[in-house]
Amino acid sequence: xxxxxxxxxxxxxxxxxxxxxxxxxEINGINYIIYEDKGFAEVTFKSPKYSGDIxxxxxIEYKGKKCTVKTIGASAFYFCDNLTTVxxxxxxxxxxxxxxxxxxxxTNIEIPNSVVTIGERCFEVSGLTTIYIPNSVQGIxxxxxSGCKKLKSxxxxxxxxxxxxxxxxxxxxxxTIEYHSTxxxxxxxxxxxxxxxxxxxxxxxxxxCSFDGCISLTNVTIGNSVSSIKTAAFRNCENMKNIExxxxxxxxxxxxxxxxxxxxxxxxxxxxxxTYGGVFENCENLLSAKLSNSIETISETxxxGCKKLKxxxxxxxxxxxxxxxxxxxxxxxTMTLPYTLISINDNAFMGCYNLKTVISYxxxxxxxxxxxxxxxxNKKLFVPKGSEDLYKNARGWWRFxxxxxxxxxxxxxxxxxxxxxxSIYNLYGSKVDGNNYGKGIYIKNGKKVIIK
Length: 452
Hints:
- This protein is mainly beta.
- Helix content is 4%, strand content 26%.
- It has helices at residues 2-16, 388-392, and strands at residues 24-27, 30-35, 40-44, 52-55, 59-62, 65-72, 83-87, 94-95, 117-118, 130-133, 139-140, 153-156, 162-163, 176-179, 196-199, 205-206, 219-222, 228-229, 251-252, 265-267, 274-275, 288-290, 297-298, 311-313, 320-321, 334-337, 343-344, 357-360, 380-384, 402-406, 424-426, 440-444, 447-451.
- Strands 1, 2, 3, 5, 6, 8, 9, 11 and 13 form a nine-stranded mixed sheet that branches. It has a five-stranded parallel sheet with strand order 10-12-14-15-17, with no helix packed on it. A four-stranded parallel sheet has the order 16-18-19-21, with no helix packed on it.
- Strand 5 and strand 6 (65-72) form a beta hairpin.
- The N and C termini lie far apart (121 Å).
């Protein structure tokens, strides 16, 4: 009896369920699923497949009522390999998964400024050469543009709230990227043909490994809201010769520019308060570097292996030079150390084979190791007059073959500069008129000169 009642109850429930089947309706050559009660329609697939040039209207008429076209359904144009163009109206708010996947002849498409979401694998392996993602788009699902081998130019607007993984996986022909979202920049790691990057003023940081291995990247513009360049963000961008860092920047992560072999000059703005290890490691053609006057530490291996680095501006305020910071910098000839310097770690200047002159402005010898420098017998040390004996008896410093006292009573800055071939500075760091200097010791083009 109980089982019979149960069966009757289930049957009654099934009869009570209203089953709704959404049938496709073809209107002017396009199939739609029509939601009569909501007054909108969704473009859907058809057989035979769409081909040629398709213009989707903003609204259609069905049973005497107008319906707004709001979405392009999942797989609507999937594998339409003879589809050449599609015009999407500005009533469409969503493009669902696989909508244009494998449309090999679809080279361009204009996404209207009404679209909010782009679905998973939406344009996968299509023939797109450019894509402009408008400011209306808030979310892009995973693999949305994956495998677009011909895609060369990408523009991303400023309203993204979420951006799933591998959106541009396998897009190996990208040459230009312009990015404006406050959301973290997705990985474009290993895009070997990428040449031009514009990071808009809306962007707050450049994430770990974002452009790691983009070996063709040469033109980089970073907006004035970026406060952090994270670990390995531009590592191994081998053809990048110059990059201007914005005044909004506060920190530079580990190995951010490691292996940028063509980088020639770098100015770290005074807004930067923290750098991490290996930032410019193995930048083999780096010639000059100016450090922020807001940092206190030159980080470990920061310039290690910069074989052509010759001129370094170390500002007053630096307290510590970490391990191997200038290791293997073979072209440095003169190193000027500010009076704020307290300690230099081991191997900081190891392998600086052409370093002949070291000028230390601190009357109290900074703490160093016997291995901080090498080839002491070829190096001359200038120190504040009256502190010669302190240096001669201090660990590491005593190894210099000659220690000479100089007058540093009016020091106001400490640097080596490269403004012109005739730039001349006294040992106080002040620029001297080339026609009006007297007897003494000067720095000219990074070299010590003595006028007698």
